[in-house]
Each structure stands twice: as C-alpha cells, then as structure tokens.
Protein 1
Amino acid sequence: MRALLTGGAGYIGSHTAVAMLDAGHEVFVVDNFANSSAESIKRVEQITSRTVKLYEADVSDKAAMDRILGEVAPDVVIHFAGLKAVGESVSKPVEYYRNNIDTTLTLLESMKDNGVKRIVFSSSATVYGDNNQPPFTEDMAKGMCTNPYGWTKWMQEQILADANVADPELSVVLLRYFNPVGAHESGMIGEDPKGVPNNLMPFISQVAVGRRDKLTVFGNDYDTPDGTCRRDYIHVMDLAEGHVKAAEYSLNNKGTEIFNLGTGNPYSVLDMVNSFEAACGHPIKYEIGSRRAGDVQDSWADATKAAKVLSWKAERNIDQMCLDSWNWQMKNPDGY
Ligand code: NAD
Ligand code: WQD
C-alpha cells in the first residue's frame, strides 16, 4: 500500500516508516520540521535500503496538502503531525489548539477533495483523563484531560469520528499510545528532544550519557509499591508495528475503531531507573522531588482489543526498551 505519514520525520513517524517499509509498503512523508529534521528520513532510507519521498510542508496548508495528496494518491494517511509537549501546551495553549486542530481539519478537507478514505491517527492514553481507573479499555468514556495538549487529542478524536458519521465510506483508526520509549535496534534513529526533555526516558538517558547531572523523580508518596507513578512503557518499534497492522486493517474496514497500543504492564519510575542502570552499566544519579502538576498516579492499557482485532501484541520488554534507548543515546549523544 501507499502510505503518507504526516509528521513522519519525528520520533514515532520515523520508526513507523521503517516498519512500513520492512512490511513491503511504500512510504511518503510530509513534515514542516517544527520538531525534527530531514536527517531522520535519510537514516530510515539507510536502515531499509529503500527510498522515501519527503515533502517539506505544513499540514495546515491546504494548497500544499492538495498538491501532495494529489501526487501521492495514498491508500492511507497516518497522521502523526502535531505538537506534543505537555508543559509547553499549558503556556502556549492557543498555538497547540491552532496547530493540532488545524492540521487535522485541513487534512480531512484535503482527503475529501482528493478521494482519500483512510486515516490512522496518533491519539494518546491521556484522553482517559484522571477519572478512569486502569487498566484502560477503549469503551471507557473519555475523561477530563489535565492540559491543553491532552484536550487537542480528545478533540481530534471527536472531529475524526464526526467526519466518519458524515462520510460512512471513511475508515478512521484512533490509536491511543501509552508511553513510547526505546529506539530502532540499529541505534540510527531515536528520540531527539529539543532542550530539556519533558519525558522520563530521554531524561534518564541524558543523565546516563553525562549531558545532565541528575534526574528528579516527581514524587515518591503515591499509593504504589515504591511510591512512584506507574506507566505502560511501550517499545517504539512495537508501537510502529502496531501502525502497520492498523493501516492494513483500514484497507478492508470502514467506520471508526479505537485501539490501545500498550503492553498492559505497569512499571514505576524507579523500575525504569533500575532497568536503565542495568542497560548502561552504571548508576543513574537521581533525587526525589515533589509531585509534577497534572500527573496521574497510574496509567496502563488493557491491550486485548488490538490483540484480538489487529493480531498485534507488544513483544519487547523494559530491558530491551532501555538497551535500545541507551544504544541510540551512546551512538548519538547530541541527537541527530
Ligand atoms: P515528534 O514531535 O517527534 O513528531 C511530530 C512531527 O510532527 C515532528 O516531526 C514535527 O516536525 C511534525 N509537525 C508538527 N506540526 C506540524 C505541522 N503543522 N505540519 C507538518 N508537520 C508538523 O513527536 P512523536 O513523539 O513522534 O509524536 C507523534 C504523534 O504521536 C504526535 O501527534 C503526538 O502527539 C502523538 N503521541 C506521542 C506520544 C509520545 O509520548 N511521544 C504519546 C501519545 C501520542
Ligand atoms: C512518566 C513518569 C513522571 C520526567 C506524557 C504525556 C502523555 C503522552 C506520553 C505525549 C511520570 C515521571 C518524568 C522526569 C519523573 N504523550 N518523571 N522525572 O507524563 O506519563 O505522559 O507522555 O505525547 O500525554 O502526558 O510521561 O515520560 O513525562 O512521565 O519522575 O524528569 O515519569 O512523573 O510518573 P507521562 P513522562
């Protein structure tokens, strides 16, 4: 199949590009490099020995998207493009609503005008909010989000589902990611956050490689076995392979389907620190700080629907996640 990946130069998009190419599909990427560079796609080409046509454009630019969709004529669009920093979304809510909602609206308009009927969307476990109890199942009512970023995902899901009500010929697959970590086993592509990382894994790996002094663990007074929050960390290549299954599923299905992409196994912040220490072979310096505003205590998936319907299951454990993050970080201490 021909797949257009919006935001495909980013962390999850570049890994999905590899998985799609490995599965024999053709990959096209559109990205404005707001949070990435063309280097990731060059490396995707090196890993796979395949070519990827890369368009530099803003997904909110209707004329550009019409040109690209017209030229590519994709069977499916996998829509990663968006801004994703939770803390930044609190200080720049308008930018986040503008970018994340506009890209999705423009993409839907352009898909309609160009006869493209299938979309796989990057949603997030954040839509379960802070009032549902894990393990989260897809049929739970969406919750109250704790930040503007989360609301953009919540709203984009609604927009996509509504578009499908109006056009039953559409196939809309909403993928709710849990906590993606790790990197491709080659260590050639990985997560390359700009500035101080917001997320746990890139922070730990920058401490491990000596770019940062120590990790602050945000609270150890939660009602969990070691007092730190628990998350469902998922290897980015497992996540990428979930997209291949979702895109293939969309070829033969219409309507809106939601899938959790997680492992179903919760790990605490200190579990991750311990596993990373084993991967890198030295201690990770950390201190216990206060709780971070907006954090939920526990988040993990019930991943049975994806197993049943997509025949997909995450295979890589947290040791592999840490080993691959470390491999990427060591080979690319300053990112791309
Ligand atoms: P990323 O920032 O690495 O990738 C997003 C890509 O979108 C970047 O390459 C960026 O340049 C591009 N982009 C942003 N706005 C654009 C625009 N207007 N036009 C064109 N390109 C644009 O982030 P990621 O971690 O790969 O996340 C991909 C998607 O998955 C995002 O939608 C994110 O919200 C979602 N998601 C991520 C996580 C996570 O923890 N990484 C979890 C749940 C959901
Ligand atoms: C994980 C755990 C922190 C950093 C976020 C988004 C979510 C999704 C994935 C993005 C928490 C703790 C972290 C640090 C720490 N989407 N932590 N010290 O918050 O579960 O999810 O990323 O696109 O929408 O909210 O992930 O990696 O930030 O935090 O102790 O320096 O690590 O408190 O318990 P989170 P995270």
Protein 2
Amino acid sequence: MTAFDDLMAHARETAALDNVMTRLGWDQRTMMPHGAAHLRSEELAALETVLHDRRTDPRIGDWLEAAEAPDAAGQAALRELRRSYARNTRVPARLAAELARVTAMGQEIWSQARRDDDVAAFLPVLRQVVALRREEAAALANGGDLYDALMQDYEPGASGAETAAMFDRMRPRLVALREATLARPAPEPLRGTFPQDAQLRIARKLAETFGYDFAHGRLDLTVHPFCAGHGEDVRITTRVVETEPFNCFYSTVHEVGHAAYEQGVDAAHALSPLGRGVSMGVHESQSRIYENQLGRSRAFTGWLFDQMHAEFGPLNLHDADAFYRAVNRVHAGYIRTEADEIHYNLHIMLRFDLERDLLRGELEADDLEDAWNTRFEADFGTPVDRPANGILQDVHWSAGLFGYFPTYTLGNVYAGCLFKAMQADLPELDADLARGDLSAPTGWLRERLQRFGALREPRATIEAACGFTPDEGPLLDYLEAKFGAL
Ligand code: ZN
C-alpha cells in the first residue's frame, strides 16, 4: 500500500460513515417520532465526534505529504482532501460536536416555532447557533473575513465581496423587469383543490420523466423539500398544499435536479472525494435548470397541462397558453421557495445581506426580525404579515447554514449559462420538451457535467460544460426574453 492508497482507503470509510450521518438527518426530517429529538441530537453529536476524529487524524497530514496521485482523478481527490483536512484541523472537536448538537435541536425548535408563528421561542437557539458559527468562522478565517470563511464550505473559491458585486450588477435589471412585469395585468391563477394522492402521482411521474432513478431513491413528504445522499442511495422529499399543486410539482422537479447530479456521478468515483456534487452553486444549477429553464418552459408546460387535465379533469385555465402564464405568474409573495424566477433572486439578496451582517457582528439575532421586516417591505412593497411568512420561513439559519443562501442565485446564474450552451447544442429541444421527452437535455447535463462529480473546481466545472466563462449575462438575457414576452 502506498501513502495514496492508505489515504483513499481511509477517506472511503469516512465517506461511508458520513453517508450514515446523512441518512440519520434524512430520517430526522421525514420519519423520526417527534419525541426522539433529544436522543437524535445525542446520536448525531456522537457520530460527528467520530467523523471529526477521522477527518483530523494526523496520519492524513502525513499521507497527504507523501501521496503521489496516479492520474488526474487522483490529483483532484488530493485537492479535495487537502481542503477538507485544512478545514477540519482548524475546528476544535468540542466545537464541532456542540454545533452538531445545537443545530439538530435548532431545526426541531424552528419547526415548532414556524408552526406557532413564535419568534421568541426560536431566538434562544438562534443566538446559540450564531455564536457557535461565529466562533467556528473565526477559527477557519485565520484573521480573514468570517462570512467568506463559511462560504467556502458551500462554494469553494467564492467570496462575499465578489458575490455582493455580482448581486449589485443584477439588481437593477431584475428590478426593472419586475416592475415592467407587475405593471401588466396579472394572469389568471390556477384555482381548485387537488388531492394529495393525485398530486403525488403526478410528482412521481415528473420525477421519472426527468430521469430520477427510484431503484436508487425514494420520494417522501417534509416541511422543507430537500435531497440527501450520494451514488446508489439518493432520496428526495416534496410537500403538498392541496390548493397549490405547482408547489409540489416544481419542488419535486427541483429536488430531482439535485438527485440527478448525485445519481449521475460516474460509479468509479463512489465513496471517493469526487463521488458527489462539487459545490452548492453547481448543485443548484442542476436543480434550477430542471425546474425553470426546462420545467417552466412553454414547451414542457404544454405536456404538464395535458397530464393535469388527465388526472384532474377540466381546469379553470382553458388552454396551454393560459396554463403557461399561470405557472410563470410573477407576484411579490412572502415565500422564497414559491417565488417566481425574478423575485427569487431578490429573496436571496435580502438573506445574503442580513446573514453577512449577522456573521460579521454588524447585526444581532435579537434584531434580525426587525431587520428582515424592514428590508422586505422596502424590496417587495408589502409588510410581512406573520413570522412564518418572514424570518421563520426557511430552515437554513436554524441549521447554522450561514453562507449557503447566495449559492442559490449563483446556481441560477450557472443554470443560465448551461441553458445557453444546451440550446446551441440541441436544436430539437422544444419539440422534445413538448412531448415530455427529457432524455436529450438530461443526457446533455449528465455527459457534460454530472458524471464528473467533483473532478474540477466549481467554476471550472461550469466553464468546461458550457465552453465559455460563466457570468450573470445569460441568466438576465433569458429572464428578460421570457418575461418580456409573457
Ligand atoms: Zn436546491
């Protein structure tokens, strides 16, 4: 055994244990009895201690020094292991375990607080989470920016300043587009009640149509839809509101995009550092292009209109054009996950600014609700009516995920780039989408991007797939063309 082989064998076992941790997290949010929250916190903290010990094992440092990669994939694996080893050796075991314990509790408390519209019930644990993440960021930043230090976990190579500059370039065009769109008469929304069972039948059909492999996954219900797992076991969740079937359908397609990336990585990379999506931004590019550029296109919504008609009978929307307009209705709603493609990015910019201030100590948890409500009214033109529609709507902060939100808009930007390149390569795309045949676009993404996993750095992954340097231009051009014509 060479140092490289020892290192890879060790990393493989760590990845297997990490999968167990992921599955406990999945269980916590889908199947776990409500009363098991304390026990689960202890279990996750215990496993986190084991994982932290493995990830900070001093032998890794020795192996990394001596290892010689046999090929390009080996070099990329060493790059990923060097990054995670440097990250993990800077965080004390006590802090890592405490973070796992408090964020597990935090998610449970958030879930109840959201149901009760009770910010006061959530604040004590939020204060704890913020304090622990600031402490962790300080350990990671080595004197640098605290927010940037946390961003590296989700988007290696990204920075808060660069992100803020990109958001500043995007905001004027998004605001102008939003105003032009809202000035026109609002399209008729879909009305009616759509039973859960029937919605889930369509959701499963959508998942299969977009290439989700149910032999290596499953679909369950949660408050906040997500995708969890890698390789042969990649699970997704969705939610059902009986009066809003698009919520269920597009949440499902979104999570299928994430799952397709994980299910699409070459089997040769399984349990290696390359056997997963390379970053949250690149991940989100997959979920977004499935959900928006493909799933909300005029061509594909024509197919979906027929599916809904077959399942539910006549709708209040009489033809596929009216259906397309309803799917893409632009409105300044409260909820990020229900936002249209224009407002979505404004939701992200709000959260990005608040959490960056929070991490850098320029805003305290106790003042977050006021800051949120003030900013929301300024950006969206209406006051927040209740905390579940405001500060309590997202799980992220309860789970300590600061630095994660901007990767959603980065994903949109990358999806814009990928779609531009895909359209140039697939002249029959609209005809395929109209038939509900997604094999060409999903095959294109698998071949150009998904199968490589973490082989290349995030931006390089997008650049290699597109054939050009990614920026926000293609997304904004796409949005202006689409919503200008609606
Ligand atoms: Zn996503």
